[in-house]
Design brief:
CATH topology of the domain at 2-38: YefM-like fold
Distance between the termini: 49 Å
Radius of gyration: 26 Å
Shape: elongated
Structural class: alpha+beta
Order of helices and strands: EHHEEH
CATH architecture of the domain at 2-38: 3-Layer(aba) Sandwich
Number of strands: 3
Helix content: 10-25%
């Protein structure tokens, strides 16, 4: 693990990035005691396939009383039951 202070890291971001991309752990120590860990973020997976409007139509439902007010007993019931 490579460890530097924030002041040391300020001018060496390129070097730190190379270390991280080669697999080394890099931790930056801040003056307030916090620590920053540099990590490589993998690109998000692209979803393949075409988006089709209505593809899942009819596969979900919503109860007729979805918008009804909840009974008082719902809010006042014991959380252990």
């Amino acid at each position: 693990m490579y460890s530097v202070t924030l002041q040391e890291a300020e001018g060496h971001l390129g070097e730190l990035a190379k270390r991280v991309t080669s697999g080394e752990s890099v931790v930056i120590h801040c003056q307030d005691g916090s620590q920053l860990k540099l990590v490589v973020e993998k690109p998000a997976k692209r979803v393949s396939g075409e988006r089709v409007f209505g593809r899942y139509e009819g596969q979900g439902w919503m109860s007729d009383d979805f918008d009804d007010e909840l009974p008082e007993s719902f809010w006042l019931s014991d959380s252990n039951t």
